[in-house]
Amino acid sequence: IQTHTLNGNIYFNDTVPYTENGHLVFIHINDTELKKEWEKRSTIPFEGRDKKNNELKYTLYRYLASKGLPKDSAGLTRLYQKDIWNIENGVPNYLYAQAGFLEKRLYELMQEYQYFKINQNPNGKTLVLRYMYWKIGLHIWWENFWIGVGTGDVAIAFDKEYEKYPTIEKQFRLRAHNQFITFALTFGIAGIIVLLINLIYPLIHLRQSRHYFLYLLFCVLVILSFLIDDTLETQPGVTFYALFNTLLIKWCLLDSPSNKI
User: Fold this and answer.
1) Would you give the DSSP letter of residue 24?
2) I need a labelling partner for 226 at 20 to 30 A (CA). Which of 122, 132, 200, 245 fits?
3) CA nearest 162: which of 145, 139, 143, 142?
């Protein structure tokens, strides 16, 4: 690790393991040089915020680190104008600007997990928060395995459980975001069994229908939705599932008169 810039100024170096593309973010930083050079090339102040409302200097640190560049005047002069625009727009890694949607999202999720391992702070981290929701929901179910907590006490049960996780800010204290877990903790083992029967039995019974593939596709979409959200806890979700499930089952039955549920 170097201690001085090419101009002889002292670097700030912190080896905390925050990285971008394998390069440490908080080493080789000289804010004085960086600020002077940045404000020659951008109308957004160095101490201001980027267009995603993040502190711009931290976006800049991460972006330079992603390219393996020092955070000083020498590093900044090696950025193209498109890099400046990326930073202004809140892009913290040059690879994000080049990647497709799925690839970019994968990078972001990996970064979230890495930061969580370092500071144990899940707030604002989609993947980590989803894991915490599932963990908390499953714990509530395990403590009320047979009959659940009941429909009226779900919010109370979550509020009580969140007291054990003070690091999770109030705005991020949501429910399980998984319909299977929500059914289990609300209605107990009987509830989850009823839900699974409701999903599986028609799939088995209607398999001879010519329209079976369409119903199978609908069920796959529903199951994926159930895995990542409390679909049946909202009116649009209930309406979507009830309407299309009924219509598709009826259509399959009309196609195969011998099928009777």
Assistant:
1) E
2) 122
3) 139
Main-chain phi, psi angles of 175, to 5 degrees: -80, -165
What would the two tokens of residue 126 be?
């989609």
For the entire predicted model, the pTM comes to 0.66
- Say whether 4 sits in a helix, a strand or coil: strand
- Closest Cα partner for 86 from 64, 109, 105, 70? 64
Give the tens place of pLDDT for each residue, 143-162. 999 999 998 899 999 999 99
List Cα–Cα distances, 216 to 18, 100, 199, 200, in angstroms: 44, 29, 10, 10
19-20/23-24 β-pairing: antiparallel
Tokens at 38, concatenated:
């940045």
pLDDT in tens, 168-215: 888 888 899 999 999 999 999 999 999 999 999 999 988 888 888 999
